[in-house]
Design a protein that fits this description.
single chain, four-stranded antiparallel β-sheet, six-stranded mixed β-sheet
């Protein structure tokens, strides 16, 4: 597992001149163009843009799910483009968590069983114990044995968050995590994600089309037609802020 604590000044995630094109009937379709972005460890960053702006493509590249046509994506100074598919899968499994708009829970499993799945796939003998602790952290300590159908939408998303973080990732991607929720439940999910970030020190990258949701982040990066048009760090929420407090 990559450990950011072993690094000094480099960002946790760094995109340098990232371009992504796809073949099309008229030649090549450019979805992202020369995107450069550095994200320190512990920061909460919202990637915002309208439909078709390139948000999902950017997330896929940052997570090592796809490769850029040109430019580089580095996680803790590891060039993801230099890894083979097995190496990329290992980096994702050991360091990255995902939360999606659709909860993607197994209907026949209880909340506890759903959260334990990633650990059981690793052969972790304490999978059940860790899953129970992760559910307690997101406020579902009394809903361990409920199936998804017995849970509200907000509770299902909390289960998904517990599953994404039970393996202690250093980087969490949340793709429109409130898209299927009402305003109140969505706000609670955002608060849960931010509380987890502060508690564990993980880096949170949230993709959204909603400016109100993006405003909850410490930093907003806006895409428009595949180009990064704005990158606003409203307040320092990364490790540098923690260092300042220690001083």
């Amino acid at each position: 597992m990559i450990r950011y604590s072993d690094m000094k000044t480099a960002p946790l995630l760094a995109l340098r001149g990232v371009t992504k094109t796809y073949p099309s009937g008229d030649g090549a379709l450019t979805v992202l163009s020369e995107v450069s972005l550095e994200i320190p460890a512990g920061q909460f960053v919202a990637i915002i843009g309208s439909s078709g702006s390139g948000k999902s493509t950017l997330l896929g590249l940052m997570a090592g799910l796809d490769r850029p046509t040109s430019g580089t994506v580095e996680l803790a100074e590891v060039d993801l483009g230099a890894l083979d598919e097995e190496g990329l899968a290992a980096v994702r499994n050991q360091n990255i968590g995902f939360v999606f708009q659709s909860f993607q829970l197994i209907d026949s499993f209880t909340a506890l069983e759903n959260v334990a799945v990633p650990l059981e796939l690793r052969g972790d003998p304490k999978a059940q114990e860790k899953a129970e602790a992760a559910l307690a952290v997101v406020g579902l300590g009394k809903r361990l044995h409920h199936t998804p159908r017995q849970l509200s939408g907000g509770e299902q998303q909390r289960v998904a968050i517990a599953r994404a973080t039970v393996t202690a990732p250093i980087l969490l991607f949340a793709d429109e995590p409130t898209g299927n929720l009402d305003t109140k439940s969505g706000a609670a999910i955002l608060a849960t994600l931010d509380a987890l970030r502060k508690r564990t020190g993980l880096t949170l990258v949230l993709v959204t089309h909603d400016p109100a949701i993006a405003a909850r982040a410490g930093r907003t990066a806006e895409l428009r037609d595949g180009v990064l048009v704005r990158d606003t760090a409203k307040r320092d929420t990364g490790k540098r802020a923690a260092a300042k407090k220690k001083k």
